[in-house]
Amino acid sequence: MEDEKILDEEVQTQEDVKIKPMWQVQKESWYEKLPLNLKQLDTIIVVCLVLLVITFVVIFLDAADIFNPFGY
Predict the structure, then answer these.
(1) Mean pLDDT throughout 49-55?
(2) Contact call for residues 62 and 68 (beta carbons, < 8 A)
(3) Alpha carbon distances (Å) from 65 to 15, 43, 53, 59, 69
(4) Residue 44 has what pLDDT?
(5) How high is the pLDDT of residue 33?
(6) Cα(5)–Cα(12) distance, rounded to whole angstroms?
(7) Higher confidence at residue 36 or residue 4?
């Protein structure tokens, strides 16, 4: 009787554990190496995305001859 309970508990715990995709495991291993919390990582990502958008806007303005950042 007790053996059946132990086996039932093992089956339930195995079902509860979801298999993660390989890319998610890799990403989590990279994040574990950084001594930052989630809020700091989110801030860094947002700043990088804003800088990327600004870069694309400057490229568009330069291509349209509206703004020449290098003054030629």
Answers:
(1) 97
(2) yes
(3) 60, 33, 18, 10, 10
(4) 92
(5) 86
(6) 11
(7) 36
Q: Could you tell me which residues come within 8 angstroms of residue 28 by beta carbon, excluding any fewer than 6 positions away?
A: 20
Alpha helix locations (H) across the chain? Answer: 2-16, 22-32, 38-63
Q: Compute the distance between CA of residue 18 and CA of residue 9 in angstroms, rounded to an integer.
A: 16
For residue 7 the two structure tokens come to: 């086996």
Rounded-to-integer distance, Cα 8 and Cα 33, Å = 37
Give CA–CA dist 33/40, Å, rounded. 14
Alpha-carbon gap, residue 21 to 54, rounded angstroms: 33
Q: Tokens 């490229």: give the residue.
A: 59
The amino acid present at 62, given as its one-letter code, is D
pTM above 0.85, yes or no: no
